[in-house]
Amino acid sequence: MSKKLSAKIGPSILNADLSILYEESAKLVSNGADYLHLDVMDGNFVPNMTFGHPVVKCLRRKIKDAVFETHMMVTKPDQWIEPMADAGVDRYIFHVESAEDVKAVCRKIKETGMKVGVALNPGTPVDVVTEYVDLADMVLVMTVEPGFGGQKFMESQMTKVKWLRENYPDLDIEVDESSTCYPVMPATTHK
């Protein structure tokens, strides 16, 4: 029997004022955010750059109890697993398009104690997850091209969510729409 579906809100801090990142993040948590979605961009996988593990570590020192989820829009996702685990990240999401060996990256993330999230770009077929879904704790469906905020929602990507729900009824599914993430079914505790 499937578990009951529930929704949680994980706002992205992508458009936060970085000079007051702690204050803006704390405000999100105190106003009901279930977790914080931290978009990490390297300027290679996507053309923009944001911040890395030193900023996440500083934020974690001040916000101890919130769940931190990093959305790694980076060329070499395996390179940043240990630093993000050390920074206090709870869930590490990477793009399957950026990994040479998705299964190996999933295993390495799990070894650190973080939850594993795999993200799919709009052009990536959803059924690629069949190869490694048993190693992932969740799948992130991109409804915009990664790397830029303020894009138009691609409603066509919701067919991926439907396919995932039909084929993996207990899987946590998240939808990333521009600079905000809307989880469709995170029903587990992320700590």
Automatic annotation (TrEMBL):
Function (record text): Catalyzes the reversible epimerization of D-ribulose 5-phosphate to D-xylulose 5-phosphate.
Protein name: ribulose-phosphate 3-epimerase
InterPro entries the UniProt entry points to: Ribul_P_3_epim-like (IPR000056)
Keyword Transport among record annotations: no
GO terms for biological process, alphabetical: carbohydrate derivative metabolic process; carbohydrate metabolic process; generation of precursor metabolites and energy; nicotinamide nucleotide metabolic process; purine nucleotide metabolic process
NCBIfam families per the UniProt record, alphabetical: PRK05581.1-4
Family matches, as PANTHER family: RIBULOSE-5-PHOSPHATE-3-EPIMERASE (PTHR11749)
Class of the enzyme per the UniProt entry, highest EC level: isomerase
Source organism per UniProt: Cotesia typhae
Keyword annotations: Carbohydrate metabolism, Iron, Isomerase, Manganese, Metal-binding, Zinc
Family designation: Belongs to the ribulose-phosphate 3-epimerase family.
Pfam family, one: Ribul_P_3_epim
Catalytic activities: D-ribulose 5-phosphate = D-xylulose 5-phosphate
Enzyme Commission identifier(s): 5.1.3.1
Cofactor or coenzyme needed: Mn(2+); Fe(2+); Zn(2+)
Record's subunit section: Homodimer.
GO molecular function, one term: metal ion binding
